[in-house]
Each structure stands twice: as structure tokens, then as C-alpha cells.
Specification:
The complex is a heterodimer. Chain A is 79% helix and 0% strand. By secondary structure, chain A is mainly alpha-helical. Chain A has a domain of 67 residues. Classes of the chains: A mainly alpha, B alpha/beta.
Chain lengths: 104, 470
């Protein structure tokens, strides 16, 4: 085992505990937005796709990397936008003339 | 071509650390109602920072390829997130999750192709990381696509099974693992291809036998899978941002999956390999429940409206039918009318009503339903005993008494809303077809229950007109 691997494993172990602790007290109300938000965060895989594209030698590797970048970007952009749309609904509860009209 | 202002790896790593802090703060804020929206923005900022600084990584090349990929992906991601209807969000999350897993698998395949030509040239930890991302990423990709297809009703929601399925799946998984070991040992491309194909087929086979009612748990499970696959590519590429971001999702996604399973009183193993696979289909050879099942009482909207208008407490039980019909605004209007007449109106929210936990909260919030009127299952069940009319709007499996009483039922043991403890039950339903899990609901043949057939939104609107006319 080299030093970098031990360092990476340390980071990994700490992140596992952090991931558990961060959401331990989430109310049911937020389960869907939280799932959608963390779904966007694993779009970080885009960073990996970019690095692979940067070192790709053959055409095949470039094609694979290109598709990976597209996939990763869809994950990131779509994930954050859809989470924002979801949470936007919670925010606008008190004053919404357009809906209030229809409800009366 | 290399950018002239490429930074040192240390500088890039420092910015990754800052980005990781933003991601952590983002998740933290996402788990509290008051800060959730800003949490999403903070996490997005962290992501933008991580992606942005990667462009300045030492030795990065092929900017045209990267730019084209990001531009193309942004258009697709933006358009699909903008145009999707709120009811279709669960399958959209499944789809976004799947492409993330696919990206991890593609990274593994590309790295293997680049590094493998010199046998023995790959360190053990890199090989392990490549195999793990290829395996988990592919399962997440194809599994998510099947979950999407089921929720979008491109595939039937009920469990799809065939004889000896468990045995087949077990052998398939063993063969896939063997391909991974062979690929790592021989470092030949053919084994990588076998691994990818095996994992893709296994992902499909894993999700096919799982019924619709369990799909939220499956999506959360695959979400955690994609997180771990992303973390694993971090080990391959020696990139700390990937390790932290992926692991956070892997860990929090696992906990979220457990929380959801707990709400349904089922272990993850039970969801993945369990009872639903053996579910009898809708019109199977007659048990006691199905014999009764033909006898249901229909009610007109006018009669139902009178019942509601003269009740002292009404409990609305929303489900996926409400979401599909976009009936949340009409339901709010009905509740407002009833409250104006002095009727107490509450909403009973089952933890997994709809197709995702919290799905009903999202939709009712969209219709500006006051949050204090929403009751979770623990509070709603005693309250249902004091309720005159339980109005079930497009909910099915979460109200099925078989979950309490019938050990033969695949739903047995799942906590449900005790709708049948209310004095009267009105069920708004499109037709007599069984629910998403493909199981008959004996609530409908209960003498207390009256059925109002039709599209949920149209039915609620007829009830609104009826209450106005009382």
C-alpha cells in the first residue's frame, strides 16, 4: 500500500461517517428533495470524465469519455435544476395570488 | 493543446477541498426545511467550483471534446429538468441517477482500455477501483433505466418474474464477478466487455422482479450505488473531489434507503429479493378476499358531496392517482370549501404514498396546502378513528388492510393508514384495476366503503360542485 492509497482510504472512511451524520435527522417531508439533491451531487463523476477525456489516447477512449461527460453533465445540470424546482414549491406557500384566486 | 494557465496539482486539490466543504454544507442545509433551497444552491456552487477548477488541471487536454460534451449534456439536462411535470419527477430522478452510474462505468472502461495494454502495469488498487466502478456503475445504469420504464409505465409496474429467477440472477452475478476477476488478472479487453455486459443484464434482472410500491426504495438504493461508483473512480483517478462527493452520496443514500425501508417495515434484502417476487396476480385463483372483491358499492358525486359537507372531520388520503391527475389544486379547493362550512379537514400522508417518500408533501405544497394540516402516519391513524369520512384520492396499496390481516399478502407487515377505522370511506379511483403493486385491495369491498369512479381531478371537481350546491 502506498501513501496516496492510505490517504484516500482515510478520506473515504471520514466521508462515510459524515454522510451518515449529515442526514440522520432529516424529516420525511424532505426525503424526495434530499434524494434528488444527493443524486445531483454524485454528478461529480463529471470531473472524472473530464480528466479521462484529457488523457484519452485512442478514438475509442475519446468516444467513451465524451459520452461519460454528456452523462455526467446531464446528471449535474438536471439534478440540481429539478431539485430547485421541487424546493421552490415549499418556499412559495404563504403568498401566491395566482393559486389563491383559483382556490377561492 | 494545453491551457497556458494550467495550475499545479496542489492548487487544484486546495480548490477541491473548498468545493467539498460547499457540498457538505449543501447536504447539511438540504436536510432542514428552512434551508433546503439554499442548500441545493450551495451544493451546486460547490459542483461548479469542482468542475471549473478541473479545467485547469495539469496535463489536461482535448478541450474541444470536453466543451462539446458539457454543452450537449447541459442542453439535455436543462431541457429535461425544465419540461418534466412534477408528477414525473420520481422517474426523472431515476434517469439522472442512471446516467451518473453510466458515466462511472464508462470512465472505468476508458481507463482500463488506456492502461491495460501493458500487462502488470496496473497497480492492484487501481484495478480494483476500475472493476468496482464498472460493476456498480453498470448495475446502477441499467437498473435505473428499468425503474424509469416502470414508473413511466413503459413496463408493467407489477413484478415481472419467471421460474428459477433467483438462481439465474445468482449465477449471472457470479459470472459477472468472475469476469471482473479475469479482467483484473489477464488485463484483456474481452473480459472488461464481459463484465460490462454481465453487470448491465444483472441490473435489469435485479429491478424487473420488484413491484412498483417498492420502486422508491430501489431508486434510493441505486442512488447510493452510483455514489459509490463515483467514489471508486476517485480511487482510480486519484482524485479527492470524486472520493468525497461520491462517498457522501453513497453513505447518505444508504441511510436514506434504510429510513425508507423502515417506513415500510421491510429490510432492504426483503425489498430486493423478497416477497413481492412471489405475488399472486390480480385475478388469481380465488382466495377469500377476491371472492368478495367483485362486490363494491358505487356512489354518485352528489351523494358523496353531501356526506362530506355534513361531516365534522374529513381525512384526505392522497396517493399516486392524485399526482397523475394533477388533482392537488382541486383537492385544496374542496378542502377550503369544507372548512368554510366548519368541517375539520386533515391530510393523512403515508411515508411512501405516491412513488417516492415525500412525493405527496411536494404536490400538496405546490397547491399551498397549509403544512399543519398534513399528518404523518403515526398521528393520522388514531385520528382516523375519530373521522367521519376518509376521502381516499388515488391511493391504493398504502390503505390495503391485507397488510395488517393477511399473512399471505405480499404487502403483509407494511404499516398502512387504517382508513377502514373511519366511519365512512369514499374512494376516488379510476377503475377497479389493482394498484401499482398489482394486488387486490379488500378495502373496496368493505361495507363502509363507497367508490366514486373516474379521473381523480374530474371527480374532485364534481365533489366541489356538489358541496357548493348543498
Amino acid at each position: 500500500m502506498n501513501a496516496e492509497l492510505i490517504f484516500s482510504l482515510t478520506i473515504f472512511a471520514l466521508a462515510v461517517f459524515l454522510g451518515f451524520e449529515l442526514i440522520a435527522r432529516v424529516p420525511t417531508l424532505l426525503h424526495t428533495p434530499l434524494m434528488s439533491g444527493t443524486n445531483a451531487i454524485h454528478g461529480i463523476v463529471l470531473v472524472g470524465a473530464m480528466l479521462v477525456a484529457g488523457t484519452a489516447d485512442s478514438t475509442l477512449e475519446q468516444v467513451l469519455a465524451f459520452v461519460a461527460i454528456v452523462f455526467g453533465t446531464v446528471n449535474v445540470v438536471g439534478g440540481f435544476l429539478v431539485t430547485d424546482r421541487m424546493l421552490d414549491m415549499f418556499r412559495r406557500r404563504p403568498d401566491r395570488p395566482d393559486r389563491a384566486d383559483r382556490a377561492e | 493543446m494545453t491551457l497556458p494557465l494550467a495550475l499545479s496539482q496542489n492548487t487544484v486539490n486546495l480548490v477541491y477541498a473548498a468545493a467539498a466543504i460547499l457540498l457538505i454544507l449543501g447536504i447539511k442545509r438540504l436536510s432542514s426545511p428552512a434551508t433546503a433551497r439554499s442548500g441545493n444552491l450551495v451544493a451546486a456552487a460547490g459542483m461548479a467550483l469542482a468542475v471549473g477548477i478541473t479545467l485547469f488541471s495539469p496535463g489536461l487536454d482535448r478541450y474541444w471534446l470536453i466543451a462539446a460534451g458539457i454543452a450537449f449534456g447541459s442542453v439535455i439536462g436543462f431541457a429535461s429538468a425544465r419540461m418534466v411535470r412534477m408528477t414525473a419527477i420520481p422517474q426523472m430522478v431515476a434517469l439522472f441517477n442512471g446516467v451518473g452510474g453510466g458515466a462511472a462505468a464508462l470512465i472505468a472502461a476508458a481507463e482500463f482500455h488506456r492502461l491495460a495494454p501493458e500487462p502488470g502495469g496496473l497497480a492492484g488498487d487501481i484495478l480494483a477501483g476500475i472493476m468496482f466502478s464498472a460493476l456498480i456503475g453498470s448495475i446502477s445504469f441499467s437498473g435505473s433505466l428499468v425503474a424509469f420504464a416502470k414508473l413511466q409505465e413503459l413496463l408493467p409496474g407489477r413484478p415481472l418474474t419467471f421460474p428459477a429467477q433467483q438462481v439465474f440472477n445468482g449465477l449471472l452475478f457470479a459470472a459477472t464477478l468472475a469476469a471482473a476477476v479475469a479482467a483484473a488478472a489477464a488485463e484483456e479487453q474481452v473480459w472488461m466487455v464481459a463484465l460490462l455486459v454481465g453487470a448491465l443484464v444483472f441490473g435489469v434482472m435485479l429491478v424487473l422482479p420488484i413491484g412498483g410500491a417498492d420502486m422508491p426504495v430501489v431508486i434510493s438504493f441505486l442512488n447510493a450505488f452510483t455514489g459509490l461508483a463515483a467514489a471508486s473512480t476517485g480511487f482510480v483517478l486519484d482524485n479527492v473531489a470524486l472520493i468525497i462527493g461520491g462517498t457522501l452520496v453513497g453513505a447518505s443514500g444508504t441511510l436514506l434507503t434504510v429510513l425508507m425501508g423502515r417506513a415500510m417495515n421491510r429490510s432492504l434484502a426483503n425489498v430486493l429479493f423478497g416477497a413481492f417476487g412471489a405475488a399472486p396476480s390480480g385475478g388469481g385463483a380465488g382466495g377469500a378476499a377476491t371472492a368478495d372483491g367483485q362486490m363494491v358499492r358505487e356512489i354518485t358525486a352528489e351523494d358523496a358531496a353531501v356526506m362530506l359537507a355534513y361531516a365534522s372531520q374529513v381525512m384526505v388520503v392522497p396517493g399516486y392517482g392524485l399526482a397523475v391527475a394533477q388533482a392537488q389544486h382541486a383537492t385544496r379547493e374542496l378542502a377550503d370549501l369544507l372548512e368554510a362550512r366548519g368541517v375539520r379537514v386533515k391530510y393523512a400522508i403515508h411515508p411512501v404514498a405516491g412513488r417516492m417518500p415525500g412525493h405527496m408533501n411536494v404536490l400538496l405544497a405546490e397547491a399551498s396546502v397549509p403544512y399543519p394540516q398534513l399528518m404523518d402516519m403515526e398521528d393520522a391513524n388514531p385520528e382516523l378513528g375519530r373521522t367521519d369520512v376518509a376521502l381516499v384520492v388515488g391511493a391504493n396499496d398504502v390503505t390495503n388492510p391485507a397488510a395488517r390481516s393477511n399473512p399471505e399478502s405480499p404487502l403483509y407487515g407494511m404499516p398502512i393508514l387504517d382508513v377502514d377505522s373511519a366511519a365512512n370511506v369514499i374512494v376516488l379511483k379510476r377503475s377497479m384495476s389493482p394498484g401499482f403493486a398489482g394486488i387486490d385491495n379488500e378495502l373496496y369491498s368493505n361495507p363502509k366503503t363507497a367508490m366514486l369512479f373516474g379521473d381523480a381531478k374530474a371527480s374532485v371537481e364534481r365533489l366541489v360542485a356538489g358541496v357548493k350546491a348543498v
